[in-house]
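The authors assume throughout that readers already know how a fold can be written as discrete tokens. For illustration, here is how one protein appears when written out as sequence plus structure tokens.
>
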Amino acid sequence: MPYGEYQYSLDDKGRVVVPQPFRHFVEDGVVVTRGMEGCLYLFPLIQWVRIEEQLNKAPIGDAESRAFVRFFYSGAYKTKMDNAYRVMVPPALRKFADVESEVVIAGAPGHLELWSEKRWWENINKILENPPAPEALRGLVG
């Protein structure tokens, strides 16, 4: 599982360096798509195949399922790291995540998250201001 957080800058072509500890995780390719709370998710291809299988099972007659699939799937962009370990972040996804220059790439279970630095710290501060209830952490710690 990838973990940790790293700060980088987008270059003028919309590419960002994949941090060294995460490179093995996405070495076969990556799918970048919209994530929750205004970040982007980066899935290794093998994980994306599993996600696609689940998305294909979503009931087409259910409006909430259609909306989620549309949100998640329509923004997906398949790419690979280049020789400098960078991945392209398409303009539409940069706009969605308010990513202009400074970014945070954070590990998460089964994927990476790419945040604008501003949104990252806003999100962290919200958690600090309103920490999860102890029940939410039961089984995770202690």
